[in-house]
Automatic annotation (TrEMBL):
Name used for this protein in its record: Transcriptional regulator, LysR family
PROSITE patterns: HTH_LYSR (PS50931)
Transmembrane feature ranges: none
Keywords: DNA-binding, Transcription, Transcription regulation
InterPro entries reported for this sequence: LysR_HTH_N, LysR_subst-bd, WH-like_DNA-bd_sf, WH_DNA-bd_sf
Organism for this UniProt entry: Chromohalobacter israelensis (strain ATCC BAA-138 / DSM 3043 / CIP 106854 / NCIMB 13768 / 1H11)
Classification lineage: Bacteria, Pseudomonadati, Pseudomonadota, Gammaproteobacteria, Oceanospirillales
Length: 318
């Protein structure tokens, strides 16, 4: 025989279930993106609406379920116990909704704007082929392409500014889905007339004299200084440039050596890779998006990026 307490709990659960049945996908999406991005303002930008609308959705949702979802006055926003339970359901429900959509949605009929962020290595190497393939496969999708350094592109992905990132992998990032794009080789490169017929010692002295460096926050910037520290090399002169193509041109003109992807500049007879030890490990690249993505189009476009990637397949090689 049930006690009065048990009866009250069962009635409460039935009422809460009825309230959940009245929730709409917009409520769940709004709560999820506030939780994921850390603020009402960021969620409003991600969902292409205003902050007052976001606040109204949350107030409406909390009234329907009879529980407070976010603790008031906390920065970043913090979930209540009821909020944590709701987000768990929201993630699964929204993921299933979009999985169902992906099964029946024809890429030719998909619409909307997808924001794609990438590094300059991708932009110079195979972004054009990828873009043309998306246009053919998904003609009603608008691509918004943003080219930036690795660190900023990851930040934009995590704060919801972009939907998909084509970047060197960063194993520290969690709650993202990754599709491997292969690996890109990197090496010190300089003007062919300076590099040819040099001994190992002369090559190291060439590196020591003048380095053309990409901007802080780029993956190549981090890798070059890690290598220099290992060799205990302090360059006599550093010249910084935020554009890879310009950096390569400066190297061609003999202004210094630069860490670049040799495959990208292999057709330039004026630029040649330096033979040094230890060699650099190649960079793993990924097409990555937040988990769950809540858009079948994002996953489809990520797979088109994989199909069009010009990077080497297989494991990273030194």
């Amino acid at each position: 025989m049930l006690s009065l307490a048990h009866t009250e709990i069962r009635i409460f659960d039935m009422r809460r279930s009825a309230a959940m049945m009245r929730l709409e996908f917009r409520h769940l999406e709004t709560a999820y993106w506030i939780y994921r991005l850390g603020s009402y303002g960021a969620a409003a930008e991600r969902l292409n609406t205003t902050q007052p609308n976001i606040s109204m959705r949350i107030a409406d949702m909390e009234e329907r379920i009879g529980s407070v979802v976010f603790q008031r006055g906390k920065r970043p926003v913090t979930l209540t116990a009821a909020g944590r339970e709701l987000i768990g359901y929201a993630e699964r429900i929204l993921a299933l909704r979009d999985e169902l959509s992906s099964v029946f949605e024809d890429g030719q009929e998909a619409t909307g704007r997808i924001r794609v962020g990438c590094t300059e290595t991708v932009a110079l190497w195979w972004l054009a082929d990828f873009t043309l393939d998306v246009q053919r496969a998904m003609p009603n999708i608008e691509l918004d392409i943003d080219v930036d350094i690795t660190e900023k592109t990851w930040d934009k992905l995590c704060n919801g500014t972009i939907d998909l990132a084509l970047v060197p992998d960063d194993q520290l990032q969690e709650r993202v889905i990754r599709h491997s794009l292969g690996h890109a080789s990197i090496a010190w490169m300089g003007a062919a007339e300076l590099v040819q017929t040099r001994s190992t010692l002369e090559t190291m002295n060439l590196i020591r004299r003048s380095i053309l460096s990409l901007s802080p926050g780029s993956r190549l910037y981090a890798d070059q200084f890690r290598w220099l520290d290992m060799q205990d090399i302090r360059p006599d002169r550093l010249t910084y440039c935020n554009t890879m193509s310009v950096t390569a041109r400066l190297a061609c003109e003999g202004a210094g050596v630069a860490l670049l992807p040799p495959d990208l500049f292999s057709d330039d007879s004026q630029l040649q890779a330096l033979k040094v030890q230890p060699a650099f490990a190649s960079l793993p690249f990924v097409a990555t998006y937040l988990s769950p993505a809540f858009s079948p189009s994002v996953e489809r476009i990520a797979k088109l990026a994989v199909a069009n990637s010009g990077f080497h397949l297989g494991e990273s090689q030194p």
